[in-house]
Amino acid sequence: MSEEYKVSIGLETHVQLKTRSKIWCGCANVFGSEPNVDVCPICLGYPGTMPVLNREAVKLTVLSGLMLGCEINRYSKFDRKSYFYPDMPKNYQISQYDKPLCLGGSVEIEVNGKKKTIRIHRIHLEEDVAKNNHFDGASGVDFNRAGTPLMEIVSEPDLESADEAFAYLQALKQILVYGGVSDCNLEQGNMRCDINCSVRPESQEQLGTKTEIKNMNTFKGVHRSLTYEIKRQIDELRKGGKIYQETRRWDDEQGVTKAMRSKEYAHDYRYFPEPDLMPVVLEEAEIEAWQASLPELPATRRQRFISEYSLPEYDAGVLVAEKAIADYFEQVAELSGNAKAASNWMMTEMMRVLSDRDAEIVDLPITPAALGALIKLVDDKVVNMPGAKTVFAELVEQGGDPQAIVDAKGLAQVSDTAALDAWVEEAIAANPKSVADYQGGKQAALQFLMGQVMKASRGKANPPMVLDALRERLGAAG
């Protein structure tokens, strides 16, 4: 029997911070501009330019550290990290080496019902580099991204599977979005990560030789690349081969990692203190004020949803997973006065629409006020559930006022006993076999007869009143 292997994974997660301007200059920190528009001599690395630290970037990094339970260094500094790539105009990156802003901390994850704490090694602040664009026969460099404030969160090698890495990134994204420090929009490159992965025999305590997979920008890609890389390393060791410390890239089309170059060590970058920037010294009062400003975090909000709104744990977890959805739900619950109904609409109809359209909730025309008003119309028996779903469908398409849609489409629920009795009599007369089946003990026949009444009323009959009228007319089932 072949020996089993242990997996150790550490992630270096790069998060673009949500500041109005870049980290060293006043250029706009935005996405989607024409190439090389949001630039200046500092972004372009002109000789003689002097960086000026964006204090908001420091604040957002410290806020992240506080949310993750890090120790905040009262004294930190910036360093030069030397390397020669086309996307780095100065031929060095201003980063932090031995005195970062944050140390320690952790992220709690849950995989297959089991909770686990993933330790954080450090969080430091640096500048993002430019973006290389490759075309047929040529390449170009867009310096709009150069100088974007970039926070790097380095985990300890506590992750042991692709599933755990996926859960860690999801949990980290939730916290950072809740804290307002980043949009963490993967499509815009707000959140990217490098993967460090190693395997070793179960009997071996020392970590195995690690490989690094660079510049992963989707959670699904992280999961797929790790699934492949773990198997590759184990297969290599089982056949007596050797794992080399190297940097690899993920080829998503082929579903494989490929060697790029030997892995750099810290001394390869020739770090030395950045001479053009003063150290960052934080006052206790400043840190205390930032601590007091922290928002309610996802784990706390999830527990509050369970206790305050009596939601099942699963539902609370789904609603809290995205801040915009959690905010929307709370508004609907307050405006409708019916948190259970608000949760039901969110978990079924709303989630279905978002999934079908691959949309964000803020992009839909239906407002929390409109959904809250629709729930009240159902509770007040102005419209039944089939009619309400028709109204919901129109609100999703073009927004509007639920009551106005009910009036315009004639969807008001019919509760008049005379009208209901007429439809019931019509259904009974037209379906003698179903009547006999029900009276013979077949409950499904009653649902069929109810469906016939709803069809005759064009979906407007009051369903509970229809059931009562049918039972009264037909008597108890045999």
What structural keywords apply?
single chain; 478 residues; alpha+beta; Arc Repressor Mutant, subunit A; 10-stranded mixed sheet; 15 helices; 17 strands; elongated
Structure description:
This protein is of the alpha+beta class and 478 residues long. The chain has three domains: 5-288, no CATH class; 298-409, no CATH class; 417-474, Arc Repressor Mutant, subunit A, CATH 1.10.10. The protein has helices at 55-67, 162-178, 219-238, 284-292, 298-309, 313-320, 323-336, 339-357, 368-379, 385-398, 402-409, 417-430, 432-439, 443-456, 463-474; strands at 5-16, 71-72, 75-76, 79-82, 92-95, 102-103, 106-111, 114-127, 131-135, 138-142, 149-155, 191-201, 211-216, 246-251, 256-262, 272-273, 280-281. The strands form four sheets. Strands 1, 2, 6, 7, 8, 11, 12, 13, 14 and 15 form a ten-stranded mixed beta sheet that branches. Strands 5-4-16 form a three-stranded antiparallel beta sheet, with no helix packed on it. It has a two-stranded antiparallel sheet with strand order 3-17. A hairpin with a 2-residue loop joins strand 7 (106-111) and strand 8 (114-127).
Mean pLDDT: 91
Structural class: alpha+beta
Assembly annotation: single chain
**Low-confidence parts, pLDDT < 50 over ≥5 residues?**
none
Estimated helix fraction: 40-55%
How many H/I helical runs? 15
Number of spatially distinct domains: 3
Over all CA atoms, what is the radius of gyration?
A: 30 Å
Residue fraction in strands: 15-25%
* Biggest sheet architecture: 10 strands, mixed
The N- and C-terminal alpha carbons lie at a distance of 64 Å
Q: Which outline best applies?
A: elongated
